[in-house]
């Protein structure tokens, strides 16, 4: 499995609302069109109204590469920058755990 965690900080409340709408549109396409994307979850951060954390888990690196090539992903990546103050990415290698993805 291949995964990452991304922390997005939006510029302001209006940007956060627009970002959330962009995320909702993108996730619908991911659900429908990406069988190799096992988990793609957007989280609100308690006490931090401008932050969002994504947890993404892919079957393998090839599934992630396929995700990155999709039109909906390219649209998201192009549109998000004007809404964000910062982006932090942590790449993950599974050490051990329990889950339903497999």
TrEMBL record:
One Gene Ontology molecular-function label: monooxygenase activity
User: Pfam families, per this entry?
Assistant: ABM
Record keywords: Monooxygenase, Oxidoreductase
This entry's Enzyme Commission designation comes to: 1.-.-.-
Per its UniProt record, what SUPFAM superfamilies does this chain match? Dimeric alpha+beta barrel
Answer whether the UniProt record assigns the keyword Methyltransferase to this protein. no
Cite the InterPro entries for this sequence: ABM_dom, Dimeric_a/b-barrel
Q: Where is the ABM domain?
A: 2-92
Enzyme class, top EC level, equals: oxidoreductase
This protein's name: Quinol monooxygenase
């Amino acid at each position: 499995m291949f995964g990452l965690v991304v922390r997005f900080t939006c510029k302001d409340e209006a940007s956060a609302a627009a970002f959330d709408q962009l995320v909702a549109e993108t996730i619908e396409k991911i659900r429908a069109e990406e069988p190799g994307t096992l988990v793609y979850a957007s989280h609100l951060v308690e006490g931090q109204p401008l932050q969002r954390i994504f947890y993404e888990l892919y079957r393998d690196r090839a599934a992630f590469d396929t995700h990155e090539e999709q039109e909906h992903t390219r649209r998201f990546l192009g549109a998000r920058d004007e809404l964000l103050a910062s982006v932090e990415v942590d790449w993950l290698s599974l050490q051990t755990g329990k889950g339903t993805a497999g």
